[in-house]
Design brief:
By secondary structure, the protein is an alpha+beta fold. The chain is built from six helices and 29 strands.
Length: about 450
């Protein structure tokens, strides 16, 4: 006799869940669009914003000569954006609506099939030529490739340039357009002499290893606040000028905005003593990253994730606390119950084992040649400073220590002083193998 009431209640709850689950985020104003763009594309300043009449998004443009167009749109219950440059827009469809036009923008090589935005007809007439220029640039690039002979498929994802030193040489990088906040690889061929090339990116030195006669490879990091391109400055061997720079075009960043509602104790500003403690802890972590450039490379195989559980929060997401955009999420969060194992991403030396205010119980590993990974909010640490750990070793257990609202692992990856998406570390080292002449560490 109690079955039907239970079934009815279940149906009601399921209906409520389905209705709530299909709700999408709504853009409230141009100011909100500007706030999202400020978090997701720092350094790019829109001069004009046009909001969709239905609250489904917005278009934004900077002052000339910058011809980039930003699209703010709803992705489920989150508002996010794409910054489109020449070549990013593959196609544009227009669907007329009463007094408006719905534009479907097909993105080229940005990992997102398409986005949509609906504008009033009078607004669309002003924005249409701007978007068409981006489409035209993409088609022109395809036409030029077809006319001059397409590159082999395996070379399509690689960018490159001739470095104009007195003895010129070739430099290339993978991927062709790295996104800000990521690691990428730099390769040099026909470099004169036997010594490794000298180079730096964003103020961080590169550590080249010989992969074949006359061929060298290194990792580099694109800071998350990088603009449209990044310079790789090479030292010219034995001549003037003493350096030459190759420009690396960067992909559009697409980090979403995450809205959080937290208790007042989590959003209150810290007092002066707490601020001093946080500065000391940040300085210790930064010193480990700087010193890692002097540590020899300790790994010979690819990096692995510290956990195999699902990712609950990705790198780079803008954080809006109680209606105010305050920070970025500069790591990757993995789900886990208290006590679940956390494993070393690769061979390294333990540099920090401590309890930080924000990070709780932390472990920092120095992998050498500028690479450092950190593991935060642990319930227990299973290593000591100075230990050398192997890839996959259990270094701690998942916890909820520090400034968190629940148990999880927060994983950080850094190249020198540049914090990068840890998943880009996995991608950049996926084909890692022992370099000729380098002995495997014990």
């Amino acid at each position: 006799m109690f079955v039907w009431p239970v079934v009815a209640l279940a149906v009601i709850l399921l209906t409520v869940w389905l209705v709530a689950g299909v709700r999408t985020a709504t853009l409230r104003s141009a100011e909100e669009a500007r706030a999202i763009l400020a978090v997701e594309h720092p350094g790019w300043h829109p001069a004009e914003v046009a909001c969709a009449a239905d609250g489904g998004g917005a278009l934004a443009a900077a002052a000339p000569p910058d011809d980039a167009v930003a699209v703010v749109f709803a992705h489920g219950d989150t508002l996010t954006s794409r910054l489109l440059h020449r070549g990013d827009l593959a196609r544009m469809d227009e669907v007329p609506a009463p007094g408006a036009v719905r534009a479907r923008l097909y993105l080229h090589d940005l990992g997102c099939p398409h986005v949509e935005v609906q504008l009033a007809e009078e607004h669309w007439r002003a924005w249409r030529p701007r978007l068409q220029r981006l489409v035209g640039a993409a088609l022109a690039a395809l036409t030029l490739t077809a006319a001059t002979g397409a590159l082999p498929a395996q070379e399509a994802a690689r960018g490159g340039a001739t470095v104009t030193c007195p003895s010129p040489f070739q430099a290339s990088w993978t991927p062709q357009r790295p996104p800000p906040g990521s690691l990428f690889s730099v390769e040099v061929v026909t470099y004169p002499g036997e010594a490794p090339p000298g180079a730096e990116v964003a103020g961080e030195p590169l550590h080249f290893s010989r992969t074949a006669p006359g061929r060298w490879r290194a990792l580099a990091a694109a800071p998350i606040d990088s603009a449209n391109s990044l310079g790789v400055r090479f030292a010219c061997p034995g001549g003037a000028p003493d350096s030459a720079t190759a420009r690396v075009a960067l992909a559009s960043a697409h980090y979403p905005l995450e809205r959080l509602r937290v208790a007042p104790r989590f959003s209150a500003p810290p007092d002066s003593a707490l601020q001093a403690r946080m500065r000391r802890e940040a300085a210790r972590a930064a010193e480990v990253s700087r010193a890692s450039h002097a540590t020899p490379r300790l790994w010979t195989t690819s990096f692995r994730p510290p956990r195999t559980s699902r990712i609950t929060s990705s790198f780079g997401r803008g954080r809006e606390f109680n209606g105010t955009v305050t920070s970025r999420h500069m790591g990757t969060d993995y789900a886990g119950a208290v006590g679940a194992p956390v494993r070393a991403a690769n061979r390294g030396v333990v540099r920090i084992v401590d309890r930080f205010y924000l990070g709780g119980n932390v472990v920092y590993l120095d992998h050498g040649e500028g690479l450092v990974t950190a593991y935060l909010h642990l319930s227990k640490q299973r290593v000591a400073v100075g230990d050398t750990v192997v890839r996959g070793a259990i270094i701690g257990l998942v916890g909820a220590t520090g400034r968190v609202t629940g148990p999880h692992l927060h994983w950080i990856a850094r190249y020198g002083g540049v914090t990068v998406d840890p998943l880009s570390l996995l991608r950049a080292t996926a084909s890692a193998r022992e370099a000729p002449g380098r002995s495997s560490p014990n």
